[in-house]
Amino acid sequence: MRYILLNKPYEVLTQFTDEAGRATLKNFVPVPHIYPVGRLDFDSEGLLLLTDDKALQHRLSDPRYKVFKTYWAQVEGEVTTEALEKLRRGVVLKEGRTTPAQATDMPEPEDLWARSTPIRYRANIPTTWLEIRISQGMNRQVRKMCAAVGLPCLRLVRARIDELDLGELAPGQWRELTPEESRKLKAKFSATKLPANRQVAVKPTPGALPPAAAAPSRGRRPRPGNGPAERSAPRHPR
User: pLDDT tens digit string along 67-85?
Assistant: First the structure.
């Protein structure tokens, strides 16, 4: 099994092919048969995990397993206590309410690389950095959360996936997980089970009759003269 960390550059698709000719993961990771764990937006940067371990890929991508990801967001404006509290409680988006996030303001990350396309600069509008930690995976979630509390996101960097971080990786660079890192990751999430109350309910097939209205089995015939309303309800299957 292969487990690879990549620092995805700005304006690179989280896939290996693109008919429009845009930059993809193939431009940076020449390893066949691996797939990204989750997605990182075209205009976002930072940590991406790739693997050919399909079982682990599913668990790390599924928000029900609560794999936390840490982001650094450069936002327009000054971060207020009220905005932080809203992020921590969860905000209402078009897709629904987000789960509570861990959010705090922070200084600009040390030694952060310059983005290939600089952010727009406005002399009369300050920018601030936020650290936001979430386990959900809504489309463009962090950007939408920031916008919902009045802090448009100018730059977004994923810094950590669970206990894995960027380390010394520069944009476009990648490395294999160490044997100890991959062992810990597999041990932690291979053993993870969903709580009973979070199991996915099986939805009934559209148009199917409820049990009480189902026809009797072929092995049992209704008594002569009894209409459907007079029949006793069929037994529930054991």
Answer: 999 999 999 999 999 999 9
The answer for residues whose C-beta is within 8 angstroms of residue 140's C-beta and 6 or more apart is 41
One-character DSSP codes across 100-166: P-EEEEEPPPTTPPPPSSPPP--TTS-EEEEEEEE----TTHHHHHHHHTT--EEEEEEEEETTEE-
Q: Is 41 tagged catalytic?
A: yes
Distance of alpha carbon 17 from its chain centroid, rounded? 21
9 inside domain: yes
**For residue 133, what are the domain limits?**
3-179
> Contact 6/25 with Cβ under 8 angstroms?
yes
The identity of residue 2, as a single letter, is: R
- The domain that contains 145 carries what CATH number? 3.30.2350.10
Side chain identity at 74, as an amino acid letter?
A: Q
Compute the distance between CA of residue 175 and CA of residue 47 in angstroms, rounded to an integer.
11
Exactly one of 18, 41, 62, 165 is catalytic; name it.
41
Distance of alpha carbon 146 from alpha carbon 141, whole angstroms: 9
- Averaged pLDDT for residues 191-201: 51
Q: Reduced to 3 states, what is the DSSP secondary structure of residue 3?
A: strand
pLDDT at position 201: 43
3-state secondary structure of 35: strand
In a domain, 193, yes or no: no
